[in-house]
């Protein structure tokens, strides 16, 4: 796998920087397309920094159409690409607009290999590899516009190792194996790729036939003039670079938008330690699914299927929260607020003790107060309890007794 390290060379803000996290905080891999027919890590970085005012490029990796991979950030960097889920997601962006373009084989293989290696490194299961659209709050966003069910099954395919990437067909881009100069009379796949690229950029090169004839030469010269490089009808290193980086002027740059920045609910997302659950294929399973089913009144088989999803939607509608069928932090919290036999009831006084008190009841209090849910009643939890008591106008002692418990859970 060929990865080009661009961490120090891409555009970045001189005044702002992204937050960092521990690697262990990473739970999801997010797959994007750029929603532009062309582009590069360099171009996206410029757009994100200069137009959106972000600290740096939004993605950790960019995979070009020829399969070459750019490393843009350390995995510890919390960059912007999936809004409130940024704090626990790694972003991979494939250059292309898959609403209208197909996914080239070299790019597909590279993206799969990269994703697999990240899953290994970060211990992330395949069911936590999500398309942008699969993250909470993004059901409206057609990104990455490939079938994620297929993508996950490719990841799962047996003989996990993919054969080496075949010689790239898009040889006009910088790469190892390629003819240095393309001129009139040349034939081959690299000429075909050149013609496709010219066509994509709106410089009609005539039939896409892999033959560098007069029409292709004309298109190359028109392109060279527009891109302000030497106009000689020959594709050398300078023209190659220009072809790679050229941005379609009429095209709306959709890769990365202000909605990918976190909002005030980010903290809630960060403190959530449970998995996000949703309808995926194959379906997600586990004790957490069962817990949700119990609370929303679905059959408790521990498998997140269509019925569970529709019950979750009904629940969300009743609660007046975003109706997306995804159990993310907001829905978990609403579920925690529910009474009923499955909820944890008041058991004992909670206060800072040596050693610290631990337990499910502590977790419940922590969730309700939006502090880290570790089940340990320490100073931070105590402080949150005091703040809560102050807001409620009850005795401020940092101890959860029956009164504070009742106020927290309406029980
Ligand atoms: Zn996206």
UniProtKB/TrEMBL annotation:
<dbReference type="GO" id="GO:0009253">
    <property type="term" value="P:peptidoglycan catabolic process"/>
</dbReference>
<dbReference type="InterPro" id="IPR006619">
    <property type="entry name" value="PGRP_domain_met/bac"/>
</dbReference>
<feature type="domain" description="N-acetylmuramoyl-L-alanine amidase">
    <location>
        <begin position="15"/>
        <end position="143"/>
    </location>
</feature>
<keyword id="KW-0378">Hydrolase</keyword>
<dbReference type="InterPro" id="IPR052905">
    <property type="entry name" value="LD-transpeptidase_YkuD-like"/>
</dbReference>
<dbReference type="InterPro" id="IPR002502">
    <property type="entry name" value="Amidase_domain"/>
</dbReference>
<feature type="compositionally biased region" description="Basic and acidic residues">
    <location>
        <begin position="245"/>
        <end position="258"/>
    </location>
</feature>
<feature type="domain" description="Peptidoglycan recognition protein family">
    <location>
        <begin position="1"/>
        <end position="119"/>
    </location>
</feature>
<feature type="region of interest" description="Disordered">
    <location>
        <begin position="245"/>
        <end position="271"/>
    </location>
</feature>
<dbReference type="InterPro" id="IPR002477">
    <property type="entry name" value="Peptidoglycan-bd-like"/>
</dbReference>
<protein>
    <recommendedName>
        <fullName>Autolysin</fullName>
    </recommendedName>
</protein>
<dbReference type="GO" id="GO:0008270">
    <property type="term" value="F:zinc ion binding"/>
</dbReference>
<dbReference type="GO" id="GO:0008745">
    <property type="term" value="F:N-acetylmuramoyl-L-alanine amidase activity"/>
</dbReference>
<dbReference type="InterPro" id="IPR036365">
    <property type="entry name" value="PGBD-like_sf"/>
</dbReference>
<dbReference type="InterPro" id="IPR036505">
    <property type="entry name" value="Amidase/PGRP_sf"/>
</dbReference>
<dbReference type="Pfam" id="PF01471">
    <property type="entry name" value="PG_binding_1"/>
</dbReference>
<dbReference type="Pfam" id="PF01510">
    <property type="entry name" value="Amidase_2"/>
</dbReference>
<dbReference type="InterPro" id="IPR036366">
    <property type="entry name" value="PGBDSf"/>
</dbReference>
């Amino acid at each position: 796998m060929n990865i080009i390290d661009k961490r120090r060379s891409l555009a970045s803000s001189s005044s702002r920087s992204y937050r960092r996290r521990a690697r262990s905080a990473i739970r999801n891999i997010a797959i994007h397309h750029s929603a532009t027919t062309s582009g590069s890590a360099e171009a996206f970085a410029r757009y994100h920094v200069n137009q959106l005012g972000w600290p740096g490029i939004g993605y950790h990796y960019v995979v070009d159409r020829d399969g070459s991979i750019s490393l843009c950030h350390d995995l510890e960097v919390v960059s912007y690409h999936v809004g409130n889920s940024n704090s626990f997601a790694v972003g991979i962006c494939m250059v292309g607009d898959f609403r209208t373009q197909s996914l080239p084989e070299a790019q597909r293989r590279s993206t799969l290999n990269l994703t697999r290696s990240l899953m290994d490194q970060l211990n992330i299961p395949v069911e936590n590899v999500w398309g942008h659209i699969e993250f909470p709050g993004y059901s409206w966003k057609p990104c990455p516009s490939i079938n994620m069910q297929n993508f996950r099954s490719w990841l799962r395919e047996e003989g996990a190792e993919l054969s080496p990437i075949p010689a790239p067909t898009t040889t006009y881009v910088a790469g190892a194996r390629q003819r240095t100069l393309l001129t009139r009379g040349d034939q081959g796949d690299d000429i075909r790729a050149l013609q496709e690229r010219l066509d994509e950029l709106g410089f009609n090169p005539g039939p896409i036939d892999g033959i560098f004839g007069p029409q292709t030469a004309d298109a190359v010269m028109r392109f060279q003039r527009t891109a302000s490089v030497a106009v000689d009808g020959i594709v050398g290193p300078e023209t190659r670079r220009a072809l790679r980086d050229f941005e379609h002027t009429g095209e709306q740059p959709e890769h990365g938008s202000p909605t990918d920045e976190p909002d005030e609910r980010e903290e809630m997302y960060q403190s959530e330690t449970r998995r996000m659950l949703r309808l995926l294929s194959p379906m997600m399973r586990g004790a957490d699914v069962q817990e949700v089913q119990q609370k929303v009144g679905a059959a408790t088989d521990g498998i997140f299927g269509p019925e569970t999803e529709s019950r979750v939607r009904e629940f969300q509608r009743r609660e007046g929260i975003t109706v997306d069928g995804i159990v993310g932090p907001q829905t978990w919290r609403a579920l925690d607020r529910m009474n009923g036999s499955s909820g944890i009831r008041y058991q004992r006084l909670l206060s800072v003790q040596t050693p610290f008190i631990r337990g499910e009841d502590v977790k419940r209090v922590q969730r309700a107060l939006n502090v880290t849910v570790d089940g340990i009643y320490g100073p931070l939890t105590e402080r949150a309890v005091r703040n809560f008591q102050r807001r409620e106008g009850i005795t401020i002692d940092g101890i959860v007794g029956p009164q504070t418990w009742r106020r927290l859970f309406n029980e």
